[in-house]
């Protein structure tokens, strides 16, 4: 739940007024550092309520501030008089949500970031919803985005078989991510293709656009026309497989999480571009958790900024990861039909397609677009509040 019911029984200061301790009616207690409470004073002088943002300047905050006097108001708010003579009031529910216990912090973080993943392999039950229901129902849109975050992929069916449908999903979220390939882009066999996707060739597992230092978090592919032979899609859970690699081959995992690989993309599309980036194939955060896969063999640069003696072991490690991605236990295959839109986490999944036959006419056409996780998570939180309250 977004708001927790909370009632305060008693409030006191501890450790020479450096902490304020709130005793809750259910017998539990929460400890708040005085400097944090003073910093987060909610009075109009310290907080701009119209922007839900702090006005108080760090320049005006005494890090040694203490709570001179604490008490409970008639409506059971915590009132504090500070050593700098300012006074503050804090509502019980506001305090409860900001409890510093590890358990409370974990709960709030999970609610804000939904970072518990459901991993899958070839057993994936491809989550499927209709295009219309996510456009028109908040409950369905919420379920769509939650599933996208947790599972990493959702198939939407029943879009029209013409260009422009992805713009509707962009509006539903907020807005799409513009890149050098345009606001949306057409995956079809093109003369003098400026991207390997714009041919009839097989595309092995890749993430899109690691040549952007901040690659698009979400990819949308809308099938407008499908060829009868070939052109099947495949996806794999890159996080799940990276964690398997860590267990089975820690040295390969170590190399792929520490080697910065150069990527390049030079050409003309929406406008002319000359892109370079440096990315780890398996990106981990400060806790060692896998947070993004950056792998596109086509745009991996011929320039490689590592010592010559480290090159071969890098290739061996990359090959081990790719072999594991391609293992039949790990990958899931399907074939898009006209009107299908597949939406997936481009930081987590790798995707590919089978080759198909070239023809004199366009035999296969997908329209693609990108969105950012920041924008999608924002919409998800708004829908969560609307749907669950
Ligand atoms: C891409 O555009 O990144 C693709 O992988 C295209 C996928 C497809 O053609 O099915």
What attributes characterize this protein structure?
single chain; 389 residues; alpha+beta; NE0471 N-terminal domain-like; Double-stranded beta-helix; binds 2-oxoglutaric acid
List the SSEs and their pairings.
Layout: E1 8-14, E2 19-24, E3 29-33, H1 34-39, E4 47-48, E5 53-54, E6 67-72, E7 78-82, E8 87-90, H2 92-97, H3 102-113, E9 128-130, H4 131-136, H5 138-150, E10 153-157, H6 165-173, E11 185-187, E12 203-206, E13 218-225, E14 233-237, H7 238-248, H8 250-258, E15 260-268, E16 272-280, E17 282-284, E18 290-293, H9 311-325, E19 331-334, E20 341-345, E21 349-353, E22 365-371, H10 373-388
Parallel strand pairs: 9-10
Antiparallel strand pairs: 1-2, 2-3, 4-5, 6-7, 7-8, 10-20, 11-22, 12-21, 13-20, 13-22, 14-19, 14-21, 15-16, 17-18
Helix pairs in contact: 5-10, 7-8, 7-9, 8-9
Give a description of the structure.
There is one protein chain. It contains ten helices and 22 strands. The termini are close together. The protein is an alpha+beta fold and 389 residues long. It is 26% helix and 29% strand. The strands form seven sheets. It has a six-stranded mixed β-sheet. A four-stranded antiparallel β-sheet has the order 12-21-14-19. The chain has helices at residues 34-39, 92-97, 102-113, 131-136, 138-150, 165-173, 238-248, 250-258, 311-325, 373-388; strands at 8-14, 19-24, 29-33, 47-48, 53-54, 67-72, 78-82, 87-90, 128-130, 153-157, 185-187, 203-206, 218-225, 233-237, 260-268, 272-280, 282-284, 290-293, 331-334, 341-345, 349-353, 365-371. The protein folds into two domains: 8-101, NE0471 N-terminal domain-like (2-Layer Sandwich); 128-388, Double-stranded beta-helix (4-Layer Sandwich), CATH 3.60.130.10. The longest helix has 16 residues, at 373-388. Helix 5 packs across helix 10, helix 7 (238-248) packs across helix 8 (250-258) and helix 8 packs across helix 9 (311-325). The model has no long low-confidence stretch (mean pLDDT 97). Strand 1 and strand 2 form a beta hairpin. The structure holds 2-oxoglutaric acid.
